[in-house]
Design goal:
Layout lengths: L1 H39 L2 H7 L4 H22 L4 H4 L5 H27 L2 H8 L2 H11 L7 H18 L10 H24 L5 H22 L12 H22 L5 H7 L2 H13 L6 H38 L1
Helix pairs in contact: 1-11, 1-13, 2-11, 3-5, 3-10, 3-11, 5-9, 5-10, 6-9, 7-9, 7-12, 8-14, 10-11, 12-14, 13-14
Length: 330
């Protein structure tokens, strides 16, 4: 009898400790998500500043990032224990698929940045959130409640307001806008694969191998198109290092980390911080106008993400209760 009562007193304390650990991990993941999205806001600027072609810029973006991460355990031995993992044959196939989808995303989005406005490309590209939410519901059977959908709608409305001044459809930009939408589909597929792999593999492994696969896919495309492969000036290496190390290793790595602790649909929605960051960076670095519409749109985006975060927490709790009910019945 005493053993039963002891276990009964220990079990709730263990559950509370586990809940506290999960909450702390979620807070760090939320911070990583926002930091990663802000960092990725530099990507359009670096592509515009690059002295190589859009495909070649993609090769450097993925290649430098992949090689740097691959060499990290040899250069910093202390990191080896933190990134050790065992990948199965199935995991490797998923990693290849993720690399292919990211390469397809870059092959569509980088040229789009030169064929349409950065505002159009950024706004349309972030529509990937819808595809991720749909995939999370259909494929992963994740719960998507009304509060999250409200948050997503508010976020999209804020993005439309933020881009409203500079966003516009025109025949001259139609190809760039279409490529941005295609990139959103590929980017959404990449996000879903990362969400699937993060349950078993560390961020390091996912970003390293998807980067190397993407670089290998983009290099022949750049060669076939006859793009400039080497920047003609020493300063031209700056944007390439920035987009590979800051944007991809830092930004995409932080977002991949967030997928392990947040729902895939909310993580994808959280990347809407990117257009807010892009607008501020364009104001600071390129002297672009930042008026009332941009500021109001940014505020609405942040409000929508906050609502969606509350909805995501409610959905995760409902999923946990449902699993607990099924376990108790069995």
């Amino acid at each position: 009898m005493s053993q039963v009562s002891a276990s009964a007193t220990v079990s709730p304390s263990l559950e509370r400790a586990d809940a506290a650990r999960r909450a702390a991990a979620a807070r760090w993941a939320l911070l990583a998500l926002f930091a990663g999205a802000i960092t990725i806001g530099f990507s359009g600027i670096f592509v515009r500043w690059s002295e190589t072609g859009p495909m070649a810029t993609g090769v450097y973006r993925m290649g430098i990032a992949g090689v740097a991460l691959w060499l990290l355990p040899f250069l910093v031995p202390a990191t080896r224990t933190n990134i050790a993992d065992k990948t199965t044959r199935r995991d490797k196939l998923w990693l290849v698929a993720g690399g292919l989808l990211f390469a397809a995303d870059i092959a569509a989005w980088h040229p789009a940045l030169l064929l349409t406005t950065i505002s159009n490309a950024t706004f349309i590209g972030n529509v990937s959130t819808i595809f991720v939410a749909l995939g999370a519901w259909l494929i992963f059977k994740r719960r998507i409640g009304g509060l999250f959908l409200l948050g997503m709608a508010v976020t999209l409305a804020g993005a439309a307001l933020l881009m409203g001044v500079s966003f516009g459809l025109a025949a001259s930009r139609l190809l760039g806008d279409a490529l941005s939408l295609l990139a959103a589909v590929f980017y959404g597929g990449y996000f879903l694969i990362v969400a699937h792999l993060r349950a078993r593999l560390p961020t390091f492994t996912i970003v390293t191998w998807t980067s190397l696969v993407s670089a290998a896919c983009l290099l022949p495309v750049a060669l076939i198109q006859g793009e400039t492969l080497f920047p003609p000036t020493l300063a031209g290496w700056g944007p390439l290092l920035g987009i590979s190390l800051l944007v991809h290793v830092g930004g995409q790595g932080a977002i991949a980390y967030a997928f392990a602790h947040l729902s895939p649909q909310f993580t994808a929605l959280g990347t809407f911080i990117q257009p807010v960051a892009a607008a501020v960076l364009a104001w600071l670095l390129l002297g672009e106008h930042l008026g009332f519409a941009e500021i109001a749109g940014s505020a609405v985006i942040l409000a929508g993400i906050w609502i969606a975060h509350k909805g995501s927490q409610r959905d995760i709790a409902a999923e946990a209760d449902s699993r607990a009910g099924r376990n108790a019945s069995t």
